[in-house]
Amino acid sequence: MKQLFLATAMAAVSCGVCAADEAIAPSGNVEFGFSSTTGNSEVTTVKGKAEYTHWLGQFENRYLLEALYTEDEDQVSKERYYGEAQTNNRFSETSYLFGFLSNDIDKFSGYRYVATVAAGYGHRLYQGDKMYLDGELGPGYSYKRVDTAQAPDSGNESSVIARANLDFWWAFSDNAEFRQKLSSDVSLSGNATISKAESSVTANLVGALAMKFAFNIKHTTKPVDDKESLDTETSMTLLYKF
């Protein structure tokens, strides 16, 4: 079954490389945040994120890369690298089939990495003048490789999952927008379910430059070893749109 999910999603993602001569102009954004304190406490945090979207015929291809690094009193307290790719075969104005791949490397989660592949159906649930809501649902497969240094008594996890995703966007003024993303990889094999949420407000500054305020939540139902179930992150970054 794992091979079936992997082959389906890989086929959907790879289809996006067909018909390159029909490509529409790509778009994306890059954001970067940095903070450093010295004196009684010395903390340095660096965050970077890049998103890129391009069209090949009726295929909409999206890519995301993200990194977070925090050093507290010369000790690394957070280090995370995340990447995902998704292709949407939009066969109508409101409906599409998607293929999704991701890899999450969070060095303080108890896992060395969490790899996910999924495929399914997406639909635009609501479309307004300055607002939309997209929903996605489909089967998939997740493999969680345990970090034995952090959790020596835990084993690797292979799970058939149901992936659910909601994406809400609202331009509530001419210069600002709100975005709410919700996703959950629900384990159907009795292992950990990982859910994520990001709430963000982006305000234009000048030209293509904007300021982004974001609050992220990550919840794991069955964390390994003695790890916390809930991780949160509040960030403020500069964002460049292209």
TrEMBL record:
Superkingdom of origin organism: Bacteria
Signal sequence annotation: 1-19
Keywords tagged on the record: Signal
Pfam families: DUF481 (PF04338)
Protein name stated in the entry: Putative salt-induced outer membrane protein YdiY
Organism: Ferrimonas sediminum
